[in-house]
Amino acid sequence: MSCLTRELQKQLVRYVQRNTRIDSRCDPASVRSDLISQGLCPSSVTESQMRQILVAAGVKQTLPN
Question: For residue 49, how many other CB atoms are within 10 A of its CB?
Fold first, then answer.
């Protein structure tokens, strides 16, 4: 389990809220990958942590297959 500080989680929630269309569905894995490639998120953040960030941001998620 990687360490995700509360402050980093708050910053990521704010970023996702500002930069994601709330009415569109997001895949936590692709959002995680995008944020890592932009240098906004450490690669140690897990997909389940990203799912929690999306929930906190109020973003709809795609259902896992």
Answer: 20
- The CA dihedral of 64, 19, 3, 58, to the nearest 10 degrees, is -60
What b/e sequence results for 22-46 when a residue is b if at least 16 CB atoms lie within 10 Å of its CB, and e otherwise?
A: eeeebbbeebbeebeeeeebeeebe
> Is the pTM value of this prediction over 0.85?
no
pLDDT at 64: 63
**Residue 26, token pair as written in the block:** 């997001």
Q: Where are the domains of the chain?
A: 6-57
- The tokens for 32 are 């995680």
